[in-house]
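Feature request, filed as a ticket because there's no other form

It would be nice if the structure record came with a short human-readable summary line next to the tokens. Right now we just get the raw output. Example of a typical job, pasted below so the devs can see what we mean:
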Amino acid sequence: MEAIMLALASQAGRALVQTMASEAWPLIRQGLTALYARIGESRANEVTNALEDSRRSVLNGGSTPEVVASRWQGRFEALLEVYPEQAEELREVIIRATSAVDTESDRPFTVGGAVKHGNSQIIAHNSGGGTIWS
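Raw output as currently delivered:
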């Protein structure tokens, strides 16, 4: 898979999680459902359910934002590997949703790489619910 497709899948996974507790959530859920509907209606229903399950998991603390973003990155990589023509639509869904989240304060979840802090390592940071240390 091309590096640009991998980067898009990664960006899409992070953007998805960043919008989960924002007003942009319906935009990204609807956009991704429509994208998968073009592939097949059963896929769209499956994705809608998976999106809601992922959102509940992050909001309830069942999974970290980082883990959920990584899982969706994998889904998006699989999508783009089979349907590379969907890359532009995926990019547009992400742009529309993230542009609806105006400021960092509107993004309750920050998803990024691990960061060292003293002898500890920040694995994931959820500004709405704390930092996970290892």
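Something like this underneath would help us a lot:
Residues 41-59 form the longest helix (19 residues).
The chain has one domain: 3-104+111-133.
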